[in-house]
Amino acid sequence: MYKNFFKYLISAIFLLGFSVNSNADFKVGFVYVGPTGDHGWTFQHHEGRNAVEAAGIKTTFVESVPEGADAERVIRQLAQSGHDLIFTTSFGYMDPTNKVAKDFPNVKFEHATGYKREHSNVSTYSARFYEGRTLLGHIAGKMTKTNTIGYIASFPIPEVIRGINAMTLAAQKVNPNIKTKIVWVFTWYDPGKEAEAAQALIDQGADVIMQHTDSTAPVQTAEKAGVWSFGQASDMQRFAPKSILTSIIDDWAPYYVERAIAARDGTWNQQDTWHGLKEGMVAMGPYNSAMGADLVKEVEQLQKDLASGKVHSFTGPIYDQKGNILVAEGKVADDGMLAGMSVYVKGVEGDIPK
Amino acid sequence: MIKIEKRNDVPMVLYFFTPFIAIILTILGGGIIFYILGFNPIEALKFYFITPISNLYGLSELLLKATPLCLIAIGLSFCFKSNNWNIGAEGQLTFGAIVGGGVALLFYNQEGFYILPLVILAGAVGGMIFALIPAILKTYFNTNEILVSLMLVYVSKLLLDYLVVGPWSNPEGFNFPETRQFSDSSRMPLLFDGLRIHAGIFLALAAVMLSWFILYKTYLGFQIKVSGLSLKTAKYAGFKGKTMILVVFMISGACAGLAGVGEITGPIGQLHRMISPDYGFTAIIVAFLGRLNPFGIIFASLVVALTYLGAETAQIFLQIPKYTGQVFQGMILFFLLASDYLLFFKVKILSLKKNELRH
After folding, report:
1. CB–CB of A61 and B319 under 8 A?
2. Which of A84, A155, B159, B280 has the smallest C-beta neighbourhood within 10 Å, fewest atoms?
3. Residues of chain B contacting A, Cβ within 8 Å
4. Do A15 and B43 touch (CB under 8 A)?
5. Do B316 and A91 touch (CB under 8 A)?
6. Is the CB of B166 less than 8 angstroms away from the CB of A353?
7. CA B277, B278, B284 angle in degrees (round to 5)?
8. What DSSP element (H or E) covers A149?
9. Residues A319, A333: Cα–Cα separation, whole Å
10. If DSSP codes are grouped into helix, strand and coil, which group holds residue A232?
């Protein structure tokens, strides 16, 4: 007991006397918007961090950092305390990341899902989640009996609209009578609201539910109601084993490891990364056997074709809700169009909230 | 057998001393928690309470964080001192930020020295109006101000959600739920280059001075204090209870509105959904820890602000979960209430006599 006390006393004196020396070796910092146990968005970024750690690189994380005035301080503290590469893993960190990057030119910054790279030490990265949506659409179109697909959407930003469109186009291809019903919940994570939205969609006749929000509430609601659902961001199968047909998994691990090693070895360059099934940033969870062997085979083939580039999620002809042509026959949408997507394709019900 | 008796002779010195006891107990309790979690408690506490403010930037961040807490708590002290339980400062902050932010957006492409004062004024008025709702309902319809003010928090947050997603969202912002950036004329001037501490701190200091003056030097302050001690006495003395309720809520709301406007014109620079990490609720702890005394509140706001910063540094350096910050805030309140209880009540342990047992 006394021994411990002295140990602490000595270490206290030591710590007070010397400021923290942490520049000795390479360190990577992560800023999370949610708790590491959210089983969705942040959980997957945390898995990516674990992979970096497993590659022998020291890491630090700060969780549940609000996207308000606090973000800048946390990012700056990471930069100040000897972190050489910092991943800021939510859109709301865009301006704080760029602001801190300006003051720390020797620290590298990686901002997820943003579009501002104001300084040469800021990269951005995101995943082509819409490729996963194409697979979900194919499955949903085949599985639905009511021809109604329910979609829980967060915010009407291009990424979410892209997902709705990709899913609808793929579903129409296998089932021309398909209708997509959307409930906007205006949150990324709110189990209560998400569950209500799922129930509302089920009440409106949807027998397949999918979500662009992060909690497990929608799949659990679907499980209870006996309708199909899809996991989001991480493999949510164990939360609704009967209902979940597959999950879109954000696999940040390969990218994080690659970038961390590049930064350590001095080969890091500014870039804007948009990886998909091909690179493995988008992965699919196990397919539910209730889909039947034929459908599983079909979807696995489609997954391969999307990865190889043989099939593109947005291949013309694509029409908007009014019937105007968006992408001509035989053409595919370019990345610029995808990045700014702000109209629904034909077959989606309702208007984009303004 | 345990018997609890009211003490008759509570020395006021102790009353002002107990917050310090509560803080010391919290630090000790925190150390024990860190020890149980397997961290070196002294090292952990050092990262918690010393590292965050060991440089200029940290000090500036501490003041930045304490400013809204102090402002709101000052306002709340008027309500709490007069037995009005305004729990909805978070809503008043949000509504103040909405009104102030609305004015800032109106001038988004203009320059002018008059813009910032207008924005600040709008924020204060917004908070004031929003606080008047529970006050008027209480005085004229006898509703419970705790419930009304609390529920209005959600109303204002949903209104903010609606505005930043819909009509006020940045037209060039790809539908992301945020407004345009305010023009520089709507931003609080920074006090030092490279630090985030801004002129809003003077608003907080002015509020402290003003509240001290009102509470201790004016008839209104006297009324507030008497009503807080005994409503009946206040009635016999012929104080106009209704007016006073309206006034304390207006002061409280204006302070919360100022806090909101300080955040959006200070470190944030636009309206979005995350303008406050529940400052309005945390300020309730600050107000009580500061003994509802203006100068006590300055001190308390600094202590509570430090628990936020400490939680971040402790996670960065030791990977201690950030939620310990909330544990610390909870412990401070717990130890404060507990020591207050022991201050005002005696706990006697009586030995049982034989005849009592037989009975």
Report:
1. yes
2. B159
3. 40-43, 46, 50-51, 54, 57, 61, 64, 161, 165-166, 174-177, 194, 196, 263, 266-269, 272, 274-277, 308-309, 312-313, 315-317, 319, 321-323
4. yes
5. no
6. yes
7. 140
8. strand A148-153
9. 12
10. strand
Within 83-142 of A, beta carbons closer than 8 Å to B belong to 91-92, 95, 103, 115
In CATH, what number does A16-127 get? 3.40.50.2300
Instruction: Please check the confidence at residue B351 and state whether its pLDDT lies above 80.
Output: no
Q: Is the pLDDT of residue A23 over 50?
A: no
Query: Measuring CA to CA, which residue among A79, A135, A81 is closest to residue A106?
Result: A79
φ and ψ at residue A326, rounded to 5 degrees: -100, -45
**pLDDT, position B121:** 98
Per-residue model confidence (pLDDT) at position A142 = 96
Q: What DSSP state is assigned to residue A99?
A: H
Asked if the model's pLDDT at residue B357 lies above 60, the reply is no
pLDDT at B303 over 50: yes
Tell me what ipTM this predicted complex has.
Answer: 0.85
Task: Determine, for residues B43 and A66 on separate chains, whether the beta-carbon distance falls below 8 Å.
Answer: no
Tell me the backbone φ, ψ of residue A321, rounded to 5 degrees.
-60, -30
Question: pTM of the full predicted structure?
Answer: 0.87
Asked if A74 and B175 come within 8 Å (Cβ–Cβ), the reply is no
- Locate the chain A residue with the closest alpha carbon to B173: A157
Give mean pLDDT, residues B28-54.
92
Q: Give B40's contacts in chain A (Cβ within 8 Å).
A: 8, 11
Residues of A in contact with B316 (CB under 8 A): 29, 60, 62, 74, 77-78, 81
Average pLDDT, chain B: 91
Q: What is the mean pLDDT of residues B9-26?
A: 87
With beta carbons less than 8 A apart as the criterion, state whether A212 and A227 touch: no
DSSP secondary structure letter of residue A323: S
Per the structure, how many domains does chain B have? 1
Short-list A72, A121, A124, A122, CA closest to A93: A72
Q: What CATH superfamily is the domain A129-249+284-339?
A: Response regulator (3.40.50.2300)
Give how far B140 is from chain A: nearest CA, Å.
35
pLDDT digits (tens, 9 = 90+) for B181-210: 999 999 999 999 889 999 999 999 999 999
Average of pLDDT values for B340-359? 72
pLDDT tens for B112-137 read: 999 999 999 999 999 999 999 999 99
- Helix, strand, coil fractions of chain B, as percent rounded to 5: 70, 5, 25
* CATH code of B267's domain: 1.10.3470
Residues composing chain B:
359
Task: Give the domain range for residue B193.
Answer: 2-358
Nearest residue to B59 via CA among B333, B308, B306, B307 = B306
**Which residues in chain A are classed under CATH 3.40.50.2300?**
16-127, 129-249+284-339
pLDDT of A1 reads: 43
CA torsion sign for B58, B64, B68, B74 is positive
